[in-house]
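(Structure overview)
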Amino acid sequence: MTHGPESAAHPVGRRAVLLGTAGFLLGAAGCTSAVPGPEPTASGASASGTAGALPRTTPWRPTSAEVHPEVKRRAVELVEAIGAWPGGRGGASAARARVTALHLPAALVARAGPLLPSADEAALQVVDAQYGGFLADSASVLVVCRQWTRHGGAVHAGGTTVDVRLARSGTGWTVTALHPAHPGAPLSPPPAGVRRVLDDARIVLPPAARADLNSGQVHAGVLTAMLRLAGTYRMYVSVVRSGHPLDVFGTSRPSDHPRGRAFDVWQIDGHAVVDPATPRPLVERFMRDAAAAGSYNVGGPVLPSGGSTPDQFFSDATHHDHVHIGFGA
C-alpha cells in the first residue's frame, strides 16, 4: 500500500482551463480531442485494417490558465512530432529531424517505442495530457493518445500513453526522457470482470488503459469501483497501470498505478476535471463516491472534508487536472 498522497507536489495555486464535453471537441486550442476513424480494439492493440484515409486530427494545446502551460505544451509537441508524419516521412531519421526542429534532443526518438511504428504515414490525436508529477524544477506529463497508421491502403487504429519527463532549463523547460506504456500481453479470453468494464459505455478508456485491463494485471478493486461509479457517472479514464511513473513523483515510494491498484479520471459527465467552470460539487461528490467504492487514497483539485483516514482525500498541484483513485492490496 502506498501511504500518503500519490504526489510530492505542493498544493495547487491555480487551476487550468480545459474545454470538455461528453464527446470530444475538434478545432479548439487547449481541448483534448478525438476524431472519427477506426477505434482501437479491446486489447488496446491495432484494430484490423480498414480502407480509407487517416482521420483528421487537431493539435492539443494547454491554455494560459494551466499551472504551468509550457510544461504540458513541450511534452505534447514532442509526442505529436514523433507519432505523426505524412507519406514518405516515416522512420527514426525523419522523426529526429522533427524533434530537432522543436529544439529538443534528437536522442529522445530512440525511446519512442510504440509511438514510432513502421508505417507509410501516421496521424496522432492527444486525448489528454495530465501531470504524473510536478515540482519546482522537474515534471512528469502523461500524454494519452490515439494513433492511426496507414500500411498501403489499410488504416490501423491503436495508441499509447507516454510518461514524458521534463526539467527546467534556464527560463524554459526541456524534455529529458520518454517512457511509453508497456501494458503486457492480453489474456484470451479476458476475465469476466474486465469484460464487464470494457463493455460498459459509461467507462471510456484510452488504448493503453484498455490494454492494461486486458493484461489481467489490474486489481479487482479497481474493476469493481469503475463499475460502481459508472452506475452514476460517465467517466473518461486517462491512466490505469502503464504509462505512469513507477514511484510517486519526487519520492522513492512505489505508486499504486504500476501495480494495477489505481486509476485516474480526467472527465466526469462531460466536464473536464481541470476546467474551473466544472462544478466543484460534482468533482467533490465523485471523489466521495470513489472513497465509498473502496478507495483509500483519493486525490483531485478539491479537498473534501472528512474521510475514514487522515489522508484518504488529498489535493495538490499534480492533481489539479484529474482525480486519482487508489486501492490497497
